[in-house]
Amino acid sequence: MNYMPGTASLIEDIDKKHLVLLRDGRTLIGFLRSIDQFANLVLHQTVERIHVGKKYGDIPRGIFVVRGENVVLLGEIDLEKESDTPLQQVSIEEILEEQRVEQQTRLEAEKLKVQALKDREKEVQTEEVRGSQS
């Protein structure tokens, strides 16, 4: 094996299928076609994979250019094991609806948490006022 420093080591991975995890949480899967010294990537036949629970859906994106600073993880996909997954593939519409429901549930839980903290803060302030009046 030839070990090259930095992004030069990725030259050996050109034309192989890769999974890319982005800083914003999106997951892309595609063939690595080009890379530069800043780790900017060009992916071909790219799909955006959305996971919700034990289901996933792939949204075709085509050619995708990714700025290197947005890459969190880059890994080669083993083509022999790719189809051997415990996850169930569903339609784009179904996975987008499930993602929307999951995001709504998270938002509601976050609102409840914020409200509980506000209520607790009011209780502490009330107790401090009572303690200072004694």
UniProtKB/TrEMBL annotation:
Pfam family, one: LSM
Gene: LSM1
GO cellular component: Lsm1-7-Pat1 complex; nucleus; P-body; ribonucleoprotein complex
Coiled-coil region(s): 93-127
Domain of life, source organism: Eukaryota
InterPro entries: Lsm1, LSM_dom_sf, PTHR15588, Sm, Sm_dom_euk/arc
GO molecular function, a single term: mRNA binding
Function: Plays a role in the degradation of histone mRNAs, the only eukaryotic mRNAs that are not polyadenylated. Probably also part of an LSm subunits-containing complex involved in the general process of mRNA degradation.
Localization of this protein: Cytoplasm; Cytoplasm, P-body
Annotated protein name in UniProt: U6 snRNA-associated Sm-like protein LSm1
Assembly description: Interacts with SLBP; interaction with SLBP occurs when histone mRNA is being rapidly degraded during the S phase. LSm subunits form a heteromer with a donut shape.
The family this protein is said to belong to: Belongs to the snRNP Sm proteins family.
Keywords: Coiled coil, Cytoplasm, mRNA processing, mRNA splicing, Phosphoprotein, Ribonucleoprotein, RNA-binding
Primary residence: cytoplasm
GO biological process, one term: histone mRNA catabolic process
PANTHER family the record matches: LSM1 (PTHR15588), U6 SNRNA-ASSOCIATED SM-LIKE PROTEIN LSM1 (PTHR15588:SF8)
Location of the Sm domain: 5-80
Keyword Phosphoprotein listed: yes
Classification via SMART domains: Sm
Organism of origin: Equus asinus (Donkey)
